Amino acid sequence: MSDSKPEKRQNWEEGAPERLYVLTSGRSAPAEPAPLDMVTLIVTRNRPTSSMQPEQATILRICDYPLSVAEISAYVHVPISVVTVLLAELLGSGHVEARAPIPAASLPDVELLEAVMHGLQNL
Q1: Phi/psi at 82 (nearest 5 deg)?
Q2: pTM of the model
Q3: How many domains does the chain divide into?
């Protein structure tokens, strides 16, 4: 005779909604708006404490050098929306610092490049 009891999940699946709900304490967005997008660079300012969630402690450990929000999401294996909530909490407590990415250099003027090239050819 087979057992009719439903199977219990031994471990939460990595992207299961229950796990993500627990990680963010039920929040779907940061309590206070944080200036975060996918390319915002995050840097650790303080070491993890024993009372932190494991994901937040991991974020603090991997951000010794600047990492983008997208990179953090990939390393921690958590969706960007959840990482944003966790980072907003860490920003509020002063554990991390958010930096705008360095803008790409603008392309030089084509006329200027042509003038330089002609000047070099005349040398």
Answers
A1: -75, -40
A2: 0.61
A3: 1
